[in-house]
Design brief:
Distance between the termini: 23 Å
Strand content: under 5%
Order of helices and strands: HHHHHHH
Number of strands: 0
Number of helices: 7
Radius of gyration: 22 Å
Helix content: over 70%
CATH architecture: Up-down Bundle
Structural class: mainly alpha
Number of domains: 1
């Protein structure tokens, strides 16, 4: 019965619902800041055109002030995007472990599954529970792999030297990377939301209730 499934869900100690809520919050913040950044760049473009037409001290001050505001905003966006990715990945790992423990037993998951990488856990656990292969041809499979890849690139981030003689190229590259990071941050939460929908679709006995997490 559904009520029994919900009680089973609530009787377990897991952080996946908390991770989901945190990811959702950062996703919302990121969406809002992304739109704000777009507005700032539009204003900067207007100021830059005015400076080209007539370079006054006041216009130069406005341009500098807007550039500083953009710099601060971009740092906030990085924070929200990275947080969305990390907490989405944390949710994914916590949820699939809990799903397996509920359906296959805590000891089995701990002894035989826990050491696998996240994507292998998803594939192996769902296949064992449902007794059929995970549908790798579905869009969600590729999106989950992308989320895990984004998480890994952040967790295992490597520092590197900057060629100051090509600083302009570095700045342009940073702009491209920020655009990609924003996309990955937004995709992260949308991926775990769609993954929950997917789990409810492929497992009619799954007791997980999305509304409990919102």
């Amino acid at each position: 019965m559904e009520s029994e499934g919900i009680l089973n869900e609530l009787s377990r100690d897991s952080k996946h619902s908390l991770f989901y809520s945190i990811s959702k919050k950062h996703f919302s913040n990121l969406n809002r800041l992304k739109n704000k950044l777009k507005d700032f760049y539009a204003k900067l473009e207007i100021i830059e055109k005015q400076v080209e037409e007539q370079e006054t001290e006041e216009l130069c001050k406005q341009e500098y002030k807007m550039l500083k505001r953009i710099d601060v905003l971009e740092k906030k966006i990085e924070f929200e995007a990275i947080s969305s990715i990390i907490f989405s990945a944390l949710f994914l790992e916590a949820y699939i472990y809990d799903y397996g423990a509920r359906r296959l037993g805590d000891n089995f998951i701990k002894e035989h599954i826990d050491k696998l990488d996240p994507m292998s856990k998803i594939v192996v656990i769902t296949q064992l529970v449902l007794e059929k292969p995970f549908p790798k041809d579905r869009d969600i499979y590729g999106r989950l792999k992308s989320l895990i890849k984004s998480r890994n690139s952040l967790v295992h981030n490597k520092s590197h030297k900057i060629d100051l003689s090509k600083f302009k190229n570095y700045i342009e590259k940073r702009d491209v990377e920020l655009i990609e990071l924003i996309k990955e941050g937004l995709d992260a939460y949308e991926t775990i939301y769609d993954f929950l929908q997917f789990m409810l679709e492929i497992d009619s006995n799954e007791s997980f209730q999305i509304n409990l997490l919102i």
